[in-house]
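Dear support,

Our group has been running a series of protein-ligand predictions, and this particular one with pyridoxal-5'-phosphate is the one our PI (initials K.S.) wants archived with full inputs and outputs. We had some confusion internally about which version of the output was final, so please treat the block below as the authoritative record. The input we submitted was:
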Amino acid sequence: MSSVLEQTTETYGIDNWGAGYFSVNRKGNLVVLSPENENLNADVKEIVDDLRKRGISTPVLLRFPQLLFGQIRKLQTAFRKSIKEFEYEGGHLCVYPMKVNQNRAVIEEYLREGSRYNFGLEAGSKAELYAALGLEQSKESLLVLNGFKDRDFIKLAFAGAGAGKNVVIVIEKMSELEHTLSLIKEVTAENSNADLPMIGVRVKLYSKGSGKWEKSGGEAAKFGLTTTEILDVIRRLQEAGRIDLLKLLHFHIGSQLTDIKRIKNAMKEAARTYAKIRQMGVPIEFLDVGGGMAVDYDGSRTSFESSANYNAREFANDVIYVIKTVCDDENVPHPTIIQESGRFLSAYHAILVTNVQDEIETVVEDLTPMEITADNPQVVRELADLRETINAKNYREYYHDALEHREELFTMFNLGLITLEDKGKGEVLFWDVCERADQFAQQKKYISEEFDDLRKLLCAKYLANFSVFRSMPDNWALEQLFPIIPIHKLNKKPTEYATLCDITCDSDGIVDKFVDLHDVKPVLELHKLVPGEPYYIAMMLVGAYQEVMGNNHNLFGVPHEAHIHIGEDGHIIKKVIYGATLADSISAVRFDAEQLHDQFRRMIMKRIKDGELSTKEGSQLIEYYQDQAESYTYLTPSIGKAV
Ligand SMILES: *Cc1c(COP(=O)(O)O)cnc(C)c1O
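Confirmed final output from the archive:
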């Protein structure tokens, strides 16, 4: 690797957050490495160029199922090794929580690889269960049902058991137990040997997680039964003679758990609860530790919100060790551990590639030399003076002076005391002083907050062809960070500092927080845009939650999607799924394309009749309007133009 490649790899932190899946090749392009064989890789720029030839423009979501497999194996291996190391006597199974990404491609690929280890599914709603019931799972795998349930939901669970699945209804509320008991009666009245779902209970733990989702745990959590309620469930099941069905104890203290200490505390509490229930003669076999295994989005390995201070192996070690210790102490069998990891499994496999369309000018620049004479108002002359004499010692003071002069400039203009030309000159001078002050500030070791803000103000604003609300909603809603990186030109030093603006008409549609090893970067290093040359960037690790939480703001629909296999000769495009057309997007808000076409046609016909349009003009307009129904909701390259 040349040193520029090394530098850019470090600038973007690829080795920190990439989990070994990403690198840069000699051409300076981002590559995705096959987890099975690190000699195989796919060049992301080549994929995008290939897709362009097929008429697929950016934004496009690239899915790499092999990375999903890689994560499944990482998780399975971590637990297998810990189980061996600590001589744990129970097993480990995973159930993938569908809500993290219910896309058919994701679920089917997950089951394909996961079934080898008897990994199953977790559904939290009727719709998710409905989808799960039609999918083939391995014989030993579980289908765990969480969330609030009505009678139909529970009846659907019975249908799953009837189809031979190992369904577990996790009781979140007493009413769910009553429905379950009455359905058991109904089903067994017809066939006393009928296969029934198992029952689980979700406990409310005192222990809380850490990070953005810590509300999911603790006494005030929305989900889970209190100790008294659990004892009630046990009593009700004993009365009904069906305590044999109570097989699982569940808890989930939140997503993106950043701190391993908190996880250990929750494990201790849950293991103790399991042991005490077990000692009451309840045949619980499964201890479901929920999800929450974090993804280190910024690569800092800390307990910061977008990071985690542990890896898969440490997580597995702590879970296994704590549960084993408690169970041995209480003299109860080691339960099989069920894990509901979603984010950890699916985050890496998807990346969104898009093009930077343009730069938005905000800072006033004037490249022609400016003449300042005694005729210019004093405020302009003073700004010019600041510009000439600013230096490393006085830059802070001069910056403050410039701010004051700018106020004065606007006041005088509003009072009609200076001309438009003088105002223009003053603005240019003001931004010049700012830029110089910024340059001096950046040379200091410690950069004060005001100059951090100034940097944000001065930096370039790149218009990226995507919607934050559709493709990175957690960045907007929760300030969660995602690594962002150019997919090419990585053999050249990025010389610009930029924030990203999306193409929605929403001032919130910006990205101005970027991953950094020690902090959060207010700006991202990017390359200078070259007119006529496309510049592509990728939003990485967006495979968990982003796709399904993304919304329709401004009617930007789902982007194009391509499924990529990494093989001997680089990438193979396995499948292309077209993104939302204008017709798709308007139908989401209950408009109907046909009806709109009719109405548009009628307006044109009237104008033709009134002699305001020729028949030819009219029919061209109608044709054009109707054709647009099938076009992409994002900005598309003009014919013959490179971008
Ligand atoms: C959301 C959820 C999960 C998934 O959590 P991750 O952080 O994605 O692993 C697991 N279990 C339950 C009950 C959930 O609600």
